[in-house]
Amino acid sequence: MNKKTTIYKLLTEKVIPSLKYLSKNNIIIDQKEHSRRVDNLPLFPIYDPKEHYHHYFEMCYLVDNECYLNLDGISYRIAEGDICIVPPSEKHCEMGLKKNKEFRIMWFVLEGSRLRINLMADRHKNSYDTVDHLDVEIPIYLLNLLPFILMTYRQNQPRWVDITKGAFLSLFSYVADLAEKGGSENDATWHEKILGETIEYLNANYNRDLGLDEIARKMGFSPNYFSSLFKEYCGVSIFEYINKIRVEKAKELLKDPKYRVKEISYMLGYSSQYYFSTVFKKLTKTSPEKYRLKRRRKIA
């Protein structure tokens, strides 16, 4: 069965029909005063606790049940059918109640000329995972809809809710038509594109203290899903790949006698020389010191 069937059904059977009931109470942007605002959150485990931001527009639609969303330091209790718009550079994170039923949420990510839809689910297993996705290329006028909605809202235009309904209807209908056809790219091509971007990012940031959460969010996925995806296509885990990059860079740095092994370990992003030496030996079958000595003997 086509994996995109789930998103297509949700768009056509739930999301689009619900637009006729959309009101200002169902649209959350960056309102300081809103009926969904919650000042005192109950105690509950947060499945997606780290605030993050992107350089592009995002939007989410809660498919069922409820969850909490923190936008720029303000928490909102999101109900089924609510739509939240997250402008670029606005910090946000999703939160779930353990006692509540499983919730699903659709994230719409507009970046470049593409729209990526991730259907996420809280499984009540301390996880918040991507269960379906769709990646399509859309025309420029649709890419500009979210900035347009934000502008009409901030200008306090009297009919901004009606304008928003029409904009959402145009966007969701266009995407539903593409989803029915299976999207503009097959899964293999889509995965190769995402993983290519990931490898470029890792090659440029190997010397930083990278975490799985940061890398996965950069690519627009949950950590668990993205970790499995990377290993499936690359044959190694993300951190095994990072260590391979670092060890190759270490070999180059060890050629230069002005760098001590301890300095090299820090230059590569390791927190200690001991850990660096352990990784280096695991991948090369020798220690950094012995590798350097062997190189010198070869040159001599």
Please tell me what the overall shape is: elongated
Order of helices and strands: HEEEEEEEEEEHHHHHHHHHH
What summary fits the major beta sheet? 6 strands, mixed
Query: Helical residue percent?
Result: 40-55%
Average of per-residue pLDDT values: 82
Low-confidence stretches: none
**Number of DSSP E strands:** 10
Strand content: 15-25%
Number of domains: 2
Helix-strand category:
alpha+beta
Termini separation = 63 Å
Tell me the radius of gyration.
23 Å
- Number of helical stretches of at least 4 residues: 11
Q: Strands of the largest sheet, in order across it?
A: 1-6-3-8-9-10
Question: Can you summarize this structure?
Answer:
The chain is an alpha+beta fold. The chain has helices spanning 5-18, 140-143, 145-154, 160-180, 187-205, 212-219, 223-234, 238-253, 261-267, 273-284, 288-299, and strands at 27-28, 37-38, 57-64, 66-71, 74-79, 83-86, 92-95, 104-111, 114-122, 128-137.
Structure description:
The protein has 300 residues and is of the alpha+beta class. The chain has two domains: 5-184, no CATH class; 186-300, Homeodomain-like (Arc Repressor Mutant, subunit A). It is built from eleven helices and ten strands. The protein has helices spanning 5-18, 140-143, 145-154, 160-180, 187-205, 212-219, 223-234, 238-253, 261-267, 273-284, 288-299, and strands spanning 27-28, 37-38, 57-64, 66-71, 74-79, 83-86, 92-95, 104-111, 114-122, 128-137. It has a six-stranded mixed sheet with strand order 1-6-3-8-9-10, sandwiched between helices. The protein has a four-stranded antiparallel sheet with strand order 2-5-4-7, with no helix packed on it. Strand 4 and strand 5 (74-79) form a beta hairpin. It is elongated.
